[in-house]
Amino acid sequence: MTTALTELTAALAAAEAAVLAREGKHGEALEVLAAQADDQPVVLDLQARVHAQLGDLAAADRAWKRVLELRPADPAALAGCALIAEITEGRRRRKPVPLLALGGAAATVLVVAAAVVVPIALSGNTEAVPVATATSGPPVSSTPPSPPVSSAAGDQRLAGLAETLAAPGIQVRRGERELRIVFEDGLFQPGGNRFTAAGRRVLTEWARRLRGAAVRVTVLGHGVALPGGPASGGSTVALGRASAAAAVLAGPGLPLSAITVATAEQAEAPFAGPDAAARNRTVVVVVAPG
């Protein structure tokens, strides 16, 4: 995974965690942040602030000092460490670290990171914004091609993989050389890359089926084509969802660097019908034998 994409993934996670922290869901926020690499200052700074809000100044100090290892002149980390030193030395009374600063910092980094990976077209449409990614090319088709005749060994391997990845609430759509995993219910809340509680749980549980499998994984993010907005192409929201899902899927045997993320062609959404909008706030996971 490119440096820009790693930074984008971290910034997306930080943005999600900042919302959770402002809602008082500190434990959930820390879980989201813990899934990220420990070399992303935006994640570490947010971890420090959440720990400080919880009164764990030692953990906050460790996180800010890690930021300073990466960015020795980081003003927020310098100020945080100085404040904790004054408190522990009895020169200052404890006071809350403002969580509102988290949202602003995370949002700023998110915009910067996204600008590196994708040129964002300004629009009032928050669910579907045209985008051309610098790393993944044009939007990727979500429709598997018609399968031509393939080798018996390849068929057998794909069939075995399909059996391994099958689960309740999940459709396994078979292509020529790959499987497309489609979640029957939407995974994300409207307008962004924040999971629903059920969506995160379903994706986390299904991710265990990938552990130890010799596979190649591509995550295609989907957005919802809104009235008056573009009906085709990709979207920044879709790319954000793909990055957020990749962070959940990554784990032992499947590092984040081994997962490709892309925005899907929104004209080829997984579902159609009256309830399609909620179901299409999702990702499709393309899995091929390694």
Automatic annotation (TrEMBL):
Transmembrane segments: 99-122
InterPro entries xref list: OmpA-like_sf, TPR-like_helical_dom_sf
Protein name: Outer membrane protein OmpA-like peptidoglycan-associated protein
Region ranges (Disordered): 131-154
Lineage of the organism: Bacteria, Bacillati, Actinomycetota, Actinomycetes, Pseudonocardiales
Domain of life: Bacteria
Organism from which the protein derives: Crossiella cryophila
Record keywords: Membrane, Transmembrane, Transmembrane helix
